[in-house]
Amino acid sequence: MPLQQCCGVFITMNPGYAGRAELPDNLKVLFRPVSMMIPSYRLIAEIMLYAEGFSSAEELSTKMVQLYKLASEQLSQQKHYDFGMRAVKSVLVMAGSLKRANPTDPENVVLIKAMRNSNVPKFLADDLPLFEALIRDLFPGVEIPPDATGQLQDEIERQIEKEHMEKNPVFVKKIIQLFETFNVRFGVMLVGPSGGGKTACYKILKAAMTQIAEG
Length: 215
Prior knowledge:
By secondary structure, the chain is mainly α. It folds into two domains: about 100 residues, Dynein motor, AAA1 domain, small subdomain (Helicase, Ruva Protein, domain 3), CATH 1.10.8; about 60 residues. Helix 2 crosses helix 3 and helix 4 crosses helix 5.
């Protein structure tokens, strides 16, 4: 096999991360290892918040990273929980979108909304009070107004009635949370026990959004 002098092969490894496997030893010896240090989540968050238009990015980035650190330590350990850099980045991008959509809202309120919308739908019921307590501790005295989901919620309730289902407030809330999750993530997985309403959630949301789009 002729060697191309202008070609280089690099392998990035993230040992210990979920779903990753170690390189075989016979392949590993062919490469020169280079150690990497863990990046500063706070600094990355601060720069991204500034880029998204936040003026108080330094203070907010510190609180956000601290919240994720405490949540990873104190909440229950679930396979679908993620408090790593991917999760931080998705929240920051969502915060930027919320800020542009609501330029008059306080910046700490916008960031809290982004963190809630990104994380609350995937938390177990027992972890929700603890997560809310962490937010209250890090952002004392901040009142978060409820999101305006009037048209979507009305259409969801109409579709539930159309399918002869019960308009349970928790069911409606979960469908809205699924919609909010789609706004943050490219890929979404619904998890839960059989008969828990996973299929009904996405089918009702699909019907509601189709109806709204068709006017």
